[in-house]
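This is your field. Have a critical look at both lines of this record:
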Amino acid sequence: MFYEHHFIGLHWLWWIVIVGTILLLVFDIIPYRPREELEKDAMEILKRRYARGEIEREEFEERKQILKQHD
């Protein structure tokens, strides 16, 4: 009934759980991007985009007002 002690033939399921757990731990410990970049708030990102010239002054002011309304 236990198919050679392999938990009713589902021994492959345990390997998936073990490998999945290891992958989750590794990718949580080794992030794809620096954590400080992820922790910046929306206003800081907006200021940096404006400073780099990615957005114009009008768009910067408009988005700044929107962010202030949601605070």
In short: The chain has a mean pLDDT of 77. The radius of gyration is 24 Å. The helical segments are 11-29, 35-38, 42-52, 57-70.
